[in-house]
Amino acid sequence: MNQSLADLLTEQASRTFIGRTQEMESLLETLDASGPSVTFLHGIGGIGKSRLLSAFAQRARAAGASVIVLNCHLVEPTEAGFWTGLSAALGEDLTSPQEANTRLASLHAPVVIALDNYEVFRLLDAWLRQTFVPSLPPTARIILCGREFPVTAWLSAPGWDGMFRAIELDGLAAGEAVELLAGKGISEERAARINRIACGHPLALTLAASTLTNRRAPVLEETAINRVIDELTRMYLADIADPLTRRTLEAASVIRRATVSLLKSMLPDAAPQDIFERLRALPFVQTELDGLKIHDSVQQVIATALKAADPSKYQAFRRAAWYQLRSELAAASPTELWRYTADMLYLLENPFLREAFFPTGAQICTVEPARPQDKTAILSICKQHDGPVAAACIGKWWHAAPQAFHAIRDESGKTVGFYCMFDAALLDSITIPDDPIVRSWLDHLRENPLPKMQRALFMRRWLSQDAGEAPSPIQAAGWLDIKRTYLSLRPRLRRVYFALRDLPAYASVASTLEIRPVEGAQVRLGKDVYQIAMLDFGPSSVDGWLARLAAGELGVTSDDLLDVDARELIVDSRRVGLTALEFAVIHYLSQREGKAVNRTSLIEDVWGYKYDVGSNVVDAVIKSLRKKLGKYSKVIETVPGFGYRFRQSQPAMGSPTP
Under DSSP, is residue 458 helix (H, G, I), strand (E, B) or coil? Predict the structure, then answer.
């Protein structure tokens, strides 16, 4: 029987799996009827979590269990994204916990759902804990595998006692480390010396085996494992004599994952399949379903070194990747959309966005839909920071739309913050409280209506107990959860409205993220004045917004030069009006991006069939458009003796400029 590449990789990983006897036994206990319902396997990067999970899955299947493994890197961290990933794994379309329960109950028991790389799924943690996991049949088990320690709610929330187990993965035992190195051809004596440096860390051992075979081990004992990996990576790279392999590694270090098409865009003078295979052969590169992944610790070393040594090459690689990703994103199917969004996010070095979508560090807060008992704490926080008039207004919203509130809890479970946000469409189904802030938003929407099928969110209020509306770790936890809503509503989400008492506190963040004050829109509640602000994602919704932010960092032209619905240009977030002819011409050219359009076709299709106008009229419209485009005027290219060509995408790196 033919095996897939994934099957062969799993089998190979199992054959070379060493040690972890105690941890494996703990995982296998999940198959028992009395075993924990949820197991959280965690440990630092490179410690071997994914390999242990893969070996467990093979052992569990051999024991008769059904095992479904989802790589969270490939799943959009929204409810819809999770259902899409789980549906693909189970071979049946699922849209609700009830449907999942029925499907899982029909499988051979016990059933294990394992979520690998769970650290990138923090956006969905509360929903999984509160909604999905409790709905599972008694025969189902969950294994969460990630770098970070579980949020405290898994440990402290009522009902989880005895049903939850955390397993922290440490380095391999000395004998296991020597065995791993022996399998790579290193003598027992030398392996013991190397392990004194690597401290049983599998990635460090693998790097050491590839780097130190023919040289003395460096003096790195009693050094932090991250420093060991840094030094071993640098030594490994120094030994790569082939310049093409080095260039391929450098290119791959600036992107989330490497595909043939991305490598081709960054290294157009190389054979793409050849450099893809060179990359795959390296000891710290893993083959995943969406491409090749350099281990994070190694990737960071390579990217940091490249940025320091040759910042222009570093930036050029990122630009080339941006153009390729933007091109692929335009044609991506709904099931593939998240991977391209994640790739675009990875190109962003903006710390606000990177931290929001790829969080790091301790998880000190939990964000959950508010419960009835949260009302007192939420109104108390609001009264403390906004005063009695504003608190009374928030109280009316609690009565009208309690589902709009989310509580932010600390490690003890105490409510220390909240946010209130809702879709503007909610107002059609509730009695709207008398609220001057929401009235101002509705006025703006009436004066600036949304295109058909596009939606707006109202971010009514966010506050923390200690810092109010000012930036704080508590607010960061809330904004992280809000990003999940952004993703779940794309591609229809167009605007988000805000109201702030202290706009300067958010000025730098707001400007970077394109949040703009609404001119002349201020509202008084009690003694305080609130500034109305808005984030307009543009016609391409959240993905277009992210592409623009990346474009701004990289100095390239973004997707949304033309807002077709508004019939306007968007030039560096500034809207520029167009005449009817200007819009018709640039829309016609943009729909044929990359293709040369002759003047005759332009005249016949835009002005009207065989309309009698001279070519100088066309030239005049093009000249006016270029003036309005400003520094982006070169997107309309002249094709001598023929006509014009619209080209937002820059040529591949290294190829001649047309």
Answer: strand
CA distance 125 to 105: 23
State the Cα–Cα distance between residues 582 and 460, nearest whole angstrom. Answer: 39
Give 285's strand partners: 294
SS3 502: coil
Written as six digits, the tokens of 139 are: 């025969």
Residues 6+ apart with CB under 8 A from 591: none
Q: 3-class DSSP state for residue 393? A: helix
Q: What is the 3-state secondary structure (H, E, C) of 108-163?
A: CCCEEEEEECHHHHHHHHHHHHHHHHHHCCCCEEEEEEECCCCCHHHHHCCCCCCC
CB 26 within 8 A of CB 167: yes
In degrees, rounded to 5, the angle at the alpha carbon of residue 490 between the alpha carbons of residues 487 and 492 is 150
pLDDT 10s digits, 363-391: 567 888 999 999 999 999 999 999 999 99
Ramachandran category for residue 361: left, alpha or beta (phi over 0 → left; psi -120 to 50 → alpha): left
In 3D, which of 347, 245, 249, 251 has the Cα closest to residue 298?
A: 249
What's the one-letter identity of residue 254? Answer: V
Separation of alpha carbons 398 and 370, rounded Å = 10
Residues contacting 134, CB < 8 A, separation 6+: none
Token pair listed for 505: 């506190």
Mean per-residue pLDDT, 178-195:
80
Say which range, 155-159, 224-228, 650-654, has the weakest mean pLDDT.
650-654
The residue whose two tokens read 């392996």 is: 191
According to DSSP, residue 579 is labeled -
Q: Pick from 166, 71, 83: which is nearest to 116 by CA? A: 71
Token pair for 607: 């002005």
| Sheet (strand 366-369) strand order | 366-369, 405-409, 415-423, 455-464, 493-500, 528-536, 515-525
CA nearest neighbour of 13 among 51, 57, 48: 51
Backbone angles phi, psi at 371, to 5 degrees: -105, 160
Assess contact for 339 and 290: CB atoms under 8 A.
yes
Distance of CA 289 to the CA centre of its chain: 17
* Residue type at position 348: L
CA-nearest of 621, 428, 485, 597 to 80 is: 485
Place of tokens 């081990």: 217
Sign of torsion, CA 622 625 630 636?
negative
Distance CA 397, CA 62 (A): 54
pLDDT score for 648? 67
Identify the three-state secondary structure at position 480. helix
Tokens of 50: 């994914």
Inter-residue contact 329 to 551 (CB < 8 Å): no
Taking the model in full, what pTM does it have?
0.73
Specify burial of residue 241 (Cβ count, 10 A radius: 0-12, 13-18, 19+): exposed
pLDDT, tens digit, for every residue of 69-117?
999 988 888 899 999 999 999 999 999 999 999 999 999 989 999 999 9
Bridge-based pairing state of the strands 366-369 and 285-288: unpaired
Residue whose tokens read 């040289």: 215
Looking at 608-652, which runs of residues are DSSP E strands?
636-639, 643-646
Q: For residues 415 and 404, what is the distance between their CA atoms, to the nearest angstrom?
A: 16
Which token pair is 127? Answer: 């929903």
* CB atoms inside a 10 Å sphere around CB 624: 15
Taking each helix axis as running N to C, give the angle between helix 188-198 and helix 225-238, from 0 to 180 degrees, rounded to the nearest 10: 120
User: Could you tell me if 155 and 164 are in contact, meaning their C-beta atoms sit under 8 angstroms apart?
Assistant: yes
